[in-house]
Amino acid sequence: MESKNTPELGTDAEFPVNAQEPVAETSGSDPEPSSEESAPAKPARAPRKPVARKPTTKPAGAAATDAPVDETELPGAAAAATKPSTAARKPAAAKATAGTTGAKRPAARKTAAAKTTAGAKTPAETPAAAKKPAAAKKPAARKPAARKQPAPPPAPPKPVVLQVSGLEKRFGQKVAVAGIDLEVREGSIYGVVGPNGAGKTTTLSMATGLLRPDAGAVTVHGADVWGDPEKAKRNMGVLPDRLRLFDRLTGAQLLHYSGVLRGLDVAEVRRRSADLVAAFGLEEATGRLVTDYSAGMTKKIALACAMIHSPRLLVLDEPFESVDPVSAANVTEILQRYVASGGTVVLSSHSMDLIQRVCDTVAVVVDGHILASGPVDEVRAGATLEERFVELAGGRKAAEGMEWLHTFSD
Ligand SMILES: Nc1ncnc2c1ncn2[C@@H]1O[C@H](COP(=O)(O)OP(=O)(O)OP(=O)(O)O)[C@@H](O)[C@H]1O
Question: What residue spans carry the Basic residues bias annotation (predicted)?
Answer without folding.
Answer: 45-56
